[in-house]
């Protein structure tokens, strides 16, 4: 689960990482009230899960109530890289002396954590990596040994952090590491980590991804989950218990099994198309799941064709075919459908599907063939 900045700051606060306290609001009048509460100058920050908000005009300093009103009115409702701003975070503006970059991630290749630290924060780290790679210091951390004070001190020195701030920055790195590990995050990124003019070190931004598999030991994550903004399709899919992720292509995907669903996205892309979603029906793939899946995909207006890719293992193809038949009796399709059905009892499954075939409903023998047909149909766009 990716957190919004305000949630990331709440997460940091649990582990003692210093941040500015602030107020989350959803309308301009409340933003003015919040700015008065935190004290001017204040900063109004768009809460969307995408980077580069500052550049897009979604982060602004305000000196008084009139400015707060004007800025909050402009930012709320703004579109930032396809994300609509529904809420803003208002905090007291910090006096910045220095901006650094720090992140903790998993480096799966070496089975260790990786910490990156750069003295060139506040700008896109990808840009620094290109133009000045030496400005990024890195250290691998053995998860069994943990991150030691000595390692933190060495990292801070090798990143070229100015002498007076080294102790303070190293301390915050250790706090962030604790948040990362104890908080079961997959990513913690702070850009910028600032040194204030009073010398205090402080996380000015927060990008946190939590490891959903650890959710069972974090009841406090429920509040984060409740605040997530799902798009309409995802909300509907969740209410129907489907494993669905919305994407922005034109080929709807229905597959049984997460691995097959991923492979289906790949073949659609190899066939020159773009998937409209990821959807894993799970094991059973019966009529209910199929009908629910079709209903969700029907609501996606970008979809021009749907590719149903089923491999019968324990699930038998004739059962799946019956499920498709029953689902089609319940849901009226608004796009053509291409079915690939293979595996246990495939022949019996195809015997059932034969009775359903039309211009709109086709069967292909192979996964690649089905992907090509679905992409062609989607390009024709006869919805
Ligand atoms: P991002 O653009 O989405 O990464 O949003 P950030 O939270 O990182 O803010 C972008 C930039 O706005 C920062 O790099 C700062 O330069 C500036 N900024 C944000 N908050 C403050 C603040 O409290 N005081 C000052 N002076 N600048 C701020
Ligand atoms: Mn940032």
UniProtKB/TrEMBL annotation:
Major enzyme class: ligase
Keywords, ordered alphabetically: ATP-binding, Ligase, Magnesium, Metal-binding, Nucleotide-binding, Tricarboxylic acid cycle
Pfam family, one: ATP-grasp_2
Residue numbers binding substrate: 256, 313-315
Reaction equation(s) it catalyzes: GTP + succinate + CoA = succinyl-CoA + GDP + phosphate; succinate + ATP + CoA = succinyl-CoA + ADP + phosphate
GO molecular function terms attached to this record: ATP binding; magnesium ion binding; succinate-CoA ligase (ADP-forming) activity; succinate-CoA ligase (GDP-forming) activity
InterPro entries: ATP-grasp, ATP-grasp_succ-CoA_synth-type, ATP_grasp_subdomain_1, Succ-CoA_synthase_bsu_CS, SUCC_ACL_C, Succ_CoA_ligase-like_bsu, Succinyl-CoA_synth-like
Binding-site list for ATP: 45, 52-54, 91, 94, 99
E.C. numbers: 6.2.1.5
Gene3D superfamilies: ATP-grasp fold, A domain, ATP-grasp fold, B domain, Succinyl-CoA synthetase domains
Cofactor note: Binds 1 Mg(2+) ion per subunit.
Task of the protein: Succinyl-CoA synthetase functions in the citric acid cycle (TCA), coupling the hydrolysis of succinyl-CoA to the synthesis of either ATP or GTP and thus represents the only step of substrate-level phosphorylation in the TCA. The beta subunit provides nucleotide specificity of the enzyme and binds the substrate succinate, while the binding sites for coenzyme A and phosphate are found in the alpha subunit.
Name of the protein in its database record: Succinate--CoA ligase [ADP-forming] subunit beta
Organism: Ferrimicrobium acidiphilum DSM 19497
Organism lineage string: Bacteria, Bacillati, Actinomycetota, Acidimicrobiia, Acidimicrobiales
